[in-house]
C-alpha cells in the first residue's frame, strides 16, 4: 500500500470524525452567517482539482452576496467593505474553510495539498507549463506547503513553485509537518492579508522528509 493510498484513507477517517465533532460549530456558524447578512450560508466556486478536473469548492460565505461582481472582483484586502462582520472573524480563524471537509469526503480534496486555483486565474489549465502542471498530480488541499511558507504574502509563481516542491518530495511525514505548522500560522494569524516575507525558519522545512 503506497503513501497516497494511506493518505486517502486517513482523509476520509479524519474528515468524518471532524464533521461529527464539529457539527455544533458548523450549525452555529451557519446561523450567524444568516443572521449577519442576506444570502446563502455556503459560497460555492469552480476550481481546478487533480489532473485539472473542475470541481465545486465549498466555503462558508464571508462576503456580501454577489461580491465577485462588485468592488475589486476576485481581489480583496483587509478593509474590503464586502467582507461581513461574521465573515471577518471566519477568515481570521480560517473557519470559513470547514465546509471543505465535505469536499474531502467527495474525493475532490485532501487535508494537505496544493490549494485549488480558479479555473481561469492565474491561468486556465492548458496555460500552465508542463512543469507547473505537476501540482495537479495530487488532490488539492485545505492547506499546503505554500500556505505555511507565506500564504497570501506570496505571488502565484512562488506558490506554484512550492506546490511543485511538495509533489516532488511528498511523504506522510511532510504532511504532518505542514499540518502542525498550519495550526501555528492560524493561531499567529500570519499572512492573512498583508504582503510579508515568508518566515525564514519555515524555509528550512525539510522537503525531503
From TrEMBL:
Keywords attached to this entry: Membrane, Transferase, Transmembrane, Transmembrane helix
Regions annotated as coiled coil: none
Segments traversing the membrane: 12-33
Pfam families: Bac_transf
InterPro entries to which the protein is assigned, alphabetical: Bact_transf (IPR003362)
Claim: Transferase is one of the keywords in the record: yes
Molecular function via GO: phosphotransferase activity, for other substituted phosphate groups
Bacterial sugar transferase domain segment(s): 7-187
Entry's family note: Belongs to the bacterial sugar transferase family.
Name of the featured protein: Sugar transferase
Organism: Domibacillus iocasae
Amino acid at each position: 500500500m503506497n503513501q497516497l493510498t494511506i493518505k486517502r484513507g486517513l482523509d476520509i477517517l479524519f474528515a468524518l470524525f471532524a464533521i461529527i465533532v464539529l457539527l455544533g460549530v458548523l450549525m452555529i456558524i451557519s446561523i450567524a452567517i444568516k443572521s449577519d447578512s442576506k444570502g446563502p450560508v455556503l459560497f460555492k466556486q469552480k476550481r481546478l482539482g487533480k489532473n485539472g478536473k473542475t470541481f465545486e469548492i465549498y466555503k462558508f460565505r464571508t462576503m456580501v452576496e454577489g461580491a465577485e461582481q462588485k468592488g475589486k472582483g476576485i481581489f480583496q484586502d483587509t478593509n474590503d467593505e464586502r467582507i461581513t462582520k461574521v465573515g471577518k472573524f471566519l477568515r481570521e480563524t480560517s473557519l470559513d474553510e470547514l465546509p471543505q471537509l465535505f469536499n474531502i469526503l467527495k474525493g475532490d480534496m485532501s487535508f494537505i495539498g496544493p490549494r485549488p486555483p480558479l479555473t481561469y486565474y492565474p491561468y486556465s489549465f492548458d496555460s500552465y507549463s508542463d512543469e507547473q502542471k505537476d501540482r495537479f498530480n495530487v488532490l488539492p488541499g485545505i492547506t499546503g506547503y505554500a500556505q505555511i511558507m507565506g500564504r497570501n504574502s506570496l505571488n502565484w509563481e512562488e506558490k506554484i513553485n512550492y506546490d511543485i516542491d511538495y509533489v516532488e518530495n511528498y511523504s506522510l511525514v511532510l504532511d504532518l509537518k505542514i499540518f502542525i505548522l498550519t495550526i501555528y500560522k492560524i493561531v499567529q494569524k500570519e499572512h492573512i492579508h498583508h504582503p510579508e516575507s515568508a518566515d525564514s525558519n519555515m524555509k528550512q522545512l525539510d522537503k525531503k522528509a
